[in-house]
């Protein structure tokens, strides 16, 4: 298997969709559709076989760099076979790992799962009932298998906060990492992708009643905007979830210990409390 050349491997709710779409707009870059094939992680998808996966890149031109973006690739312990499967198929891809403040990522993850009706309880109860909320924010644990198999140099660390502040410089870093020839250009007019706070909570018949073109047309024609807004408000999370001090301390203890695994890779130490300050101080290093 010769494709893809690079993979955005996570983290979930850390601007991976935005970066995927930005890369897809560049000349001589071909990004998979669907964005997240989850081939190496999900058993049912992996059973489709290599021919299915390779077909995702059939339209790639000879001089294109090809990529895909599957956040399931960094969702341990849920998808433990991902890296071993990948290594057996692709010898030396480049990886991009986009991080976000671990607690902010966790909250966005909770909001996403709430909107999907997967999580129905308060966020403070959820962190005990749904351990993935914390584990997906343990970036060191998620990265360790890639370091062990491919080497730390194969993975580029990118911070979602820096993408927001200085998107072009972060795109330049990605360009250099994947061996792109020429200059990529960040498209400022591209709207944010996959924003959790804008999601309506799913319900039975959601795809037909909300997403279908027919029902969208009928709603706009027959139902006054005021009524539509009222219904929408009831299906949207009205207040940002708040973690108790006890929950925060529990999360910080786990994540700060995990951050120690990343210090050598990143070249600096970081904790939940120092995250924004440290990232800001490292801006010149990481943005150049």
Which features does this protein show?
single chain; 288 residues; alpha/beta; Rossmann fold; 5-stranded parallel beta sheet; 17 helices; 8% strand; globular
Produce the secondary structure layout.
Blueprint: E1 6-10, H1 16-24, E2 29-31, H2 43-46, H3 50-55, E3 65-69, H4 82-89, E4 94-99, H5 102-115, H6 123-129, H7 132-135, H8 139-150, E5 155-159, H9 160-165, H10 167-178, H11 206-211, H12 213-222, H13 225-234, H14 245-259, H15 263-266, H16 275-281, H17 283-287
Radius of gyration: 20 Å
CATH topology of the largest domain: Rossmann fold
- How does the helix and strand content classify structurally? alpha/beta
| Order of adjacent strands in the largest pleated sheet | 2-3-1-4-5
Number of strands: 5
The CATH homologous superfamily of the largest domain is termed P-loop containing nucleotide triphosphate hydrolases
**Bulk shape:** globular
Could you spell the SSE succession in H and E letters? EHEHHEHEHHHHEHHHHHHHHH
CATH class of the largest domain: Alpha Beta
Helix content: 40-55%
Describe this structure in words.
With 288 residues, the protein is α/β, with parallel strands linked by helices. The protein has 17 helices and 5 strands. The chain has 2 domains: 243 residues, Rossmann fold; 35 residues, no CATH class. A 5-stranded parallel β-sheet has the order 2-3-1-4-5, sandwiched between helices. The longest helix has 15 residues.
């Amino acid at each position: 298997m010769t494709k893809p050349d690079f993979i955005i491997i996570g983290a979930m709710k850390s601007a991976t969709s935005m970066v995927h779409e930005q890369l897809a707009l560049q000349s001589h870059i071909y990004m998979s559709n669907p964005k997240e094939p989850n081939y190496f992680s999900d058993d049912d998808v992996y059973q489709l076989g290599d021919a299915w996966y390779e077909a995702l890149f059939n339209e790639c031109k000879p001089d294109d760099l090809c990529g895909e973006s599957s956040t399931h690739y960094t969702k341990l312990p849920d998808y433990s076979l991902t890296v071993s499967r990948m290594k057996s198929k692709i010898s030396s891809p480049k990886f991009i790992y986009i991080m976000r403040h671990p607690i902010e990522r966790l909250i966005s993850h909770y909001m996403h799962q709430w909107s999907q009706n997967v999580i129905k309880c308060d966020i403070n109860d959820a962190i005990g009932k749904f351990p993935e909320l914390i584990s997906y924010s343990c970036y060191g644990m998620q990265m360790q298998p890639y370091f062990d198999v491919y080497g730390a140099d194969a993975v580029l660390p990118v911070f979602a906060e820096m993408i927001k502040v200085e998107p072009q410089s972060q795109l330049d870093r990605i360009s250099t990492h994947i061996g792109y020839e020429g200059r990529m250009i960040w498209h400022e007019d591209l709207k944010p992708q996959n924003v959790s706070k804008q999601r309506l909570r799913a319900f039975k018949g959601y795809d037909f009643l909300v997403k279908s073109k027919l029902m969208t047309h009928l709603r706009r024609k027959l139902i006054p905007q005021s009524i539509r807004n009222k219904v929408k408000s009831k299906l949207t999370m009205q207040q940002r979830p708040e973690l108790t001090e006890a929950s925060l301390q529990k999360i910080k203890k786990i994540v700060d210990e995990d951050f120690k695994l990343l210090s050598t890779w990143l070249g600096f130490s970081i904790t939940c409390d120092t995250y924004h300050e440290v990232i800001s101080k490292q801006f010149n290093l990481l943005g150049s």
